[in-house]
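Data card: per-record layout.
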Amino acid sequence: MKWKKWTKRATAVGAGMVCYSVFPTYILKYRWILKDRRQAEDAEKILYLTFDDGPDTVYTNKLLDLLDEQKVPATFFMVAESAKQHPGIVERMKKNGYSIGIHSQKHESAMLQPIGKTGRDLKKSVEIMEKLGVDIKGYRPPWGHLNLASLYWIKKLHLNLVFWDVMAQDWSADETPDSICNKILRRVFPGAVICLHDGRGENGAPGRTIEALEKAIPLLKKQGYVFRNAEEKYGEKII
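The structure for this 239-residue chain is written out next.
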């Protein structure tokens, strides 16, 4: 009898989690990818470089050096607490015309996050970035995880939800600069949003990402691709 009650409770909890977080996460993520894939055939050869998990005191500046040299715009989704610790990097991005969005306050998944904490996380993230002089319009959730409270606060704070079309698993210790470069080259298509990382990752992963881009960017340019900030593609409403 107790086993049956436990099973019913577990089923109810599981169903609740599916409705609260799993459905919002995966339905919106795949809707994004399918939309861009459908439009790829008629799209111009434009790519949108985006970076998550920074800023990092070492790697982000090295990445900006490369992007400045290659004259490639990009969009950075920052962990707000990291941005607070490195205001000089934020200022450099603003000065050089890069787009800046938020990637939560402390890089915590919203999958199992309570309703109240989700709201506090988003509000505090925006508040921190506004104090740094950034008018935040874009939000990319860590790991792409959402919940129903996320959707409410994204709308209430007038944010644009930004996913991605292409990843290269650049955070993994198993990847090399060559493997990251090859994945980018194989997976891109006209209009694609590329998600890479300038912070966190295993064993100095962002350093390998920068090496990969040193090879990939010139090769993509030779293929006729040009780069734009993500905000230029979606304007005020990214999704």
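Known properties of this structure: The domain at 2-234 is CATH 3.20.20.370 (TIM Barrel). The longest strand covers residues 46-52.

See the next section for split statistics.
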